[in-house]
Amino acid sequence: MPPKKSLTKDDWLRAAMELLRTRGVGGVRVLTLAQELRVSRGSFYWHFDDRQYLLDSMLDWWEREMTDTVIQLEKTGRAGPQRRLLTVAEEILTANRTRYDPAVRSWAEGDKKAAKVLRRVLRKRLDFVSGLFEEIGFTPAEARARGDLLAVYLMSEWAIHMDESFDSRLRLVRRQVRLLSS
């Protein structure tokens, strides 16, 4: 039998985020994670000092992987703002970048630190999308209104169209972007 691959901090965080999504913050426990990953708890302590450090790292990971990655991807693009806006929307849908948002929102209801991170991430998302609308040529007020509409749509699209096929959802997202950016 080949040796088991060592788990990375990211492996633990991804598993923890899945537990958060399916069981809530109360379900994110070291023993449960170790069982899910089929390793000893000792592996956990190689990457994290304690559960609180795990929770703090989960918030950082969520911000980085679900928001900052998309922003950085589009800041390096050479396409015009309309195309970049479409690429952002497609990336969010294709990579399912909002899948943990409901769980983080729920967590934030009872946790001040999670609430602070949630507010910061939402502001970052709204500002980024609104900025792309400004680059298209809309006034700041108009860009903000359109940016808010698109960002909120993208963050809740999965719930609105959960019974639609992925291709249908992608067509709808593209239509939303075209409509709001013209």
Describe what you observe in this structure.
- With 182 residues, the chain is mostly helical.
- The chain is elongated.
- It starts with 8 loop residues before the first helix and ends with a helix.
- The chain has a domain of 123 residues: Orthogonal Bundle (Tetracycline Repressor, domain 2), CATH 1.10.357.
- The model has no long low-confidence stretch (mean pLDDT 93).
Features:
Tetracycline Repressor, domain 2; 182 residues; elongated; mainly alpha; 76% helix
How do the strands and helices of this protein lay out in sequence?
Layout: H1 9-23, H2 30-37, H3 41-47, H4 51-75, H5 81-94, H6 101-108, H7 112-136, H8 140-160, H9 166-181
Helix pairs in contact: 1-4, 4-5, 4-7, 5-7, 5-9, 6-7, 7-8, 8-9
Question: How would a crystallographer describe the biggest sheet?
Answer: none
* Cα distance spanning the termini: 59 Å
Q: What is the CATH top level name of one domain?
A: Mainly Alpha
CATH superfamily of one domain: Tetracycline Repressor, domain 2
Give the overall form. elongated
Poorly predicted segments: none
| Element pattern in H and E | HHHHHHHHH
